Amino acid sequence: MLRSDIMQTYDVVSYTNEHLSDERLAIALRVHTTVRQILGDFFRSRGFIEVPPVIISPLTDPLNHPVYDPYITYYDEKYALTKSMIFHKHLLVSHFDKIFTFSPNIRIETPDKAETGRHLSEFTQIDVEARGATREQMMSLVEDLMVELVSKVKEKHADDLRKLGRKLEVPRKPFRRYQYLEAEKEYGKDFEAVLSRKEKDMFWIIDIPLQAREFYDREDPSRPGILVDMDLIYPEGFQEALSGGEREYQLDRILERIKKKGQTEEQFKWYIEFARRGLPPSAGFGIGIERLVRYICGFKRIDDVHPFPKVPGKFSL
Ligand code: ASP
Ligand code: MG
Hints:
alpha+beta, eight-stranded mixed sheet, three-stranded antiparallel sheet, 21% strand, binds aspartic acid, binds magnesium ion
């Protein structure tokens, strides 16, 4: 768990006081209010039902990068704080065609993430999943969403954006696509950041290699080692907007993928039980709300959009 010597302390009362009275935070929160409304309305109008979030569970996302894992004792059971509702989404679409949720996630990031300007250890994502959907369908849905969202926010918050000196372009469909391995070859290890700085519009990174993602994204049967998944990347250096993809749903594939990641079946035993009974094919994605608001406002740091930002490795309220 967290060691006290990596926790940075500072005058948190003065910081919070100043931060809460900052006009930039007020603008960010007004934008946040609109963004949540547009997101909810968009998915409701397309037949998605909203489900309540899961905050504690014996089952959560393993993620593909190291975080400190907080657990609580729930009666005598060990429960995790939700890192994402990926598995709950899959169980839900066995029974409901299309779902979304505003899901609070806890990912206690390592302190080296403090200066990225993109990481908060506590954030909310809108997590979306549709039974029988393909990656193509989900990408098209996201493109429609982003076009609508940026247009509406620009119109409604013209004054706010002017005050921030923020010029925002409505993205144009179809968004450009980069294949992960090709982009890596051309632009090097740091290709996501390089491309994000270079591009003027949002773009996709698709076909992510197996070891670069969690076991639940579906491996392309015709291209072993390549997943049928995608990341949406913001331009102007703002980087990742969402991750998503088609899902593994067959028991044997799920077990093989867990093994390939060097993970244990024990950790996912509840999910495996459901896979044994049969899970449907599905696809979905999760959009970080604070990152979206940060992109719209054009802020250097994500802390500026959250009233009580949990910056990795920093004491906070
Ligand atoms: N919920 C996943 C995540 O947090 C995104 C997805 O739906 O694949 O990474
Ligand atoms: Mg991701």
